[in-house]
Amino acid sequence: MPYRLFYADGSAAMGVRVILEEVGETYELIETEIGAGMPRAPELLAVNPNGWVPVLLWEHGAIYECGAIVTFLCDRYPEFRLAPAANDTDRGVFLQWLFFFSSSLQTAYQMTYHTDRFCESTADHDSVQHRSGRRLHELWQVVDNAIGNREWMLGQKFSAADIYLFMLTTCYCGSTELSTNAVPS
């Protein structure tokens, strides 16, 4: 059974899609509407009660949360070396960055672009957006300082942390025909 990915352009699902491409797996995109105020598809809510993407369906069920899916795929396909092995000295740093991107940087982006999720009144939107903008600046400084003159987050080793970072810097995939691995839904 090929993977099925609940997906929306401009969402964190792009990072999962890139990893599926890296490992050469066949997958089906399930295009999903996630705009503010839009009702979530019952099929999405059945596998993720939060109603957010990405959600990866595989032969044994569904997984949601981008960082969890990334770790899952890296561990399923160790031959592609998208993550250090469990006993590798870089594993802790890899997980640190993956969780930092997921919990800190991605949340700051959500506060900026989905302000309504973080305040009860539209009167508070400007305050939330102002603070999230400052927070994004602070967090990107942490990333810039960590990378320094290195090519990748783990120094000389490309990893899924770099894919996740790429996803956060672009968060847009303009074409549903990324490659021949994607099959139409």
Detailed description of the structure:
It is a single chain. The chain is 45% helix and 11% strand. The chain is of the alpha/beta class. It folds into two domains: 3-82 and 173-183, Glutaredoxin (3-Layer(aba) Sandwich), CATH 3.40.30.10; 91-170, Glutathione S-transferase Yfyf (Class Pi), Chain A, domain 2, CATH 1.20.1050.10. A five-stranded mixed β-sheet has the order 4-3-1-2-5, covered by helices on one side. Helix 1 crosses helix 6 (160-170) and helix 4 runs parallel beside helix 6. The longest helix is centred in the middle third of the chain and has 23 residues, at 91-113. Residues 172-185 have low confidence and may be disordered.
Brief write-up:
The protein is an alpha/beta fold. The chain has six helices and five strands, in the order βαβαββααααβ.
